[in-house]
Amino acid sequence: MLGDHPQAVNQLAAGLPVSRPAVSQHLRVLKDARLVRDRREGTRRIYELNPEGVAMLRDHFAQLWDQALSAFKSSLKRTSKGEDQWLPKQHRPRQ
Description:
The protein has helices at residues 9-14, 20-32, 51-80, and strands at 7-8, 36-41, 44-49. With 95 residues, it is α+β, with helices and mostly antiparallel strands. It has a 3-stranded antiparallel beta sheet with strand order 1-3-2. The longest helix has 30 residues, at 51-80. The protein is elongated, with a radius of gyration of 22 Å. It starts with 6 loop residues before the first strand and ends in a 15-residue tail after the last helix.
């Protein structure tokens, strides 16, 4: 919801099946993780996505994805060289 535009807690809670205090708790966790930031407007707090935090999260997942792909590539190379003999029989590729 914050991807569309910044919103106050009441606006967010109105569109969700949880209480306003629950939304506030979730926003606090997201703020601690630097995924959202807030600013005061009168008596309200307006929340928005934190582009730097979202970029860090995106980079983290990209790194995890790269590691998974590298491990998969290494596994394929071992399998093609017959180095999969260390695997239990039920996990070996069928020939």
